[in-house]
Amino acid sequence: MTEFVDLSYTIEAGISAYPGDDDLKLYQNRFLDKDKYNDTRLETGMHVGTHIDVASHIMKSNVVISDYPADKFFGKGCLLDVRNQDAIGIKDEYWDIVEESSIILLYTGFENKFGSAEYFKNHPVVEEELADLFIDKKIKMLGMDLPSPDQYPFSIHKKLLGNDILIIENLRNLGLLVNIEKFEVIALPLKIRAEASLARVVARVVSFK
């Protein structure tokens, strides 16, 4: 039996944007009665809602997200329950839990602040030692229910992206994966020539009953 857990926010008008970024605009611009078909127009940056960053977002790089092969966005998932930690640090057991080429998800519980100013200003951050562990383990991607793994000057962004570890921001529903031992993460971005992309991210849970 296969179950899919949707970890993404719905792209809709009014969704919270990072402070200083333009708001997402989503509106119908063609109508069946008048135009003989319906059409919806989307105007947005690539860092709204659930999305994936690559190195060119914050570093000098010519690599865009469409340059990556599809298999970069699939992988064995691993959830780290890091609730109630303002600074998300390393633990000895992570050396055994985190596997090479996996996709690591940090469950902070901060999703409940999404839509508020606090979500962007006072979120937990990833410590350098934990980022170094992810680099040593050569994970594919790091995802989190946060707007960012760090604050300005974004040293964790640069450390991870500079080592080809992509970053998935603004996940939700990670609490549904607590106590699930095995799952796969599917995080498909648009095939777009950009430094990031909105993405539909799901966890594929296989149970044997």
Notes on the protein architecture:
It is a single chain. With 209 residues, the protein is an alpha/beta fold. The protein has a single domain (2-8, 48-206), classed as 3-Layer(bba) Sandwich (Glucose Oxidase, domain 1). It has 5 helices and 12 strands. The strands form 3 sheets. It has a 7-stranded mixed barrel. Strands 2-3 form a two-stranded antiparallel ribbon. The chain has a two-stranded parallel ribbon with strand order 6-8. Helix 4 (128-137) runs parallel beside helix 5 (155-161). The chain is globular.
Task: Summarize, please.
This protein has 209 residues and is of the alpha/beta class. 14% of the residues lie in helices and 30% in strands.
Notable traits:
Glucose Oxidase, domain 1, 209 residues, two-stranded antiparallel sheet, alpha/beta, 14% helix, 7-stranded mixed β-barrel
Question: What is the tally of beta strands?
Answer: 12
Q: What is the CATH first-level class name?
A: Alpha Beta
Give the helix tally: 5
Structural class: alpha/beta
Gyration radius over CA:
17 Å
Strand content: 25-35%
CATH-assigned homologous superfamily: Putative cyclase
Mean pLDDT over all positions: 96
Intertermini distance: 7 Å
Shape: globular
Tell me roughly what share of residues is in helical segments: 10-25%
